[in-house]
Amino acid sequence: MPGEMEERKDQTGTCGAMTVKEDITYQTMESFGTSGAWWSQYVGGFAEDGDGSGVSCREAIASLLFDREKGIGLTCYRYNLGAGSADSQKGTFWDVNRRAQSFETEAGVYDFEKDANAVWFLKRVVELGAEEVVFFCNSPLERLTENGLAHMTEGGGRVNIKPENYRAFAAYCMDVTEHFRARGIPVKFLSPINEPQWDWTSGQEGCHYEPDQIRDVYLAFLDELESRPGLKGLKLSGPESGEWKGQAQAYTQAILGEERLRRHFDGIDNHSYWTERIDKRIYKSWMNALYPGVKLRTSEWCEMVNGSDFTMDSAFHLAREIADDLRILDVVSWQNWVAVAPGGYRDGLIYIDAEKRKYTALKRLWSFGNYSRYVRPGYVRVYIKADSKAQEKMLPTAFIGTNDRGERELVMVFLNEQETEQMFLLKGVSGYTHMSVHETSEARDLECVSEGTFDGDSPVKIAGMSVTTVVLTKKKN
Question: Is 431 exposed, middle or buried, given 0-12, 13-18 or 19+ CB atoms closer than 10 A?
Answer without folding.
Answer: exposed
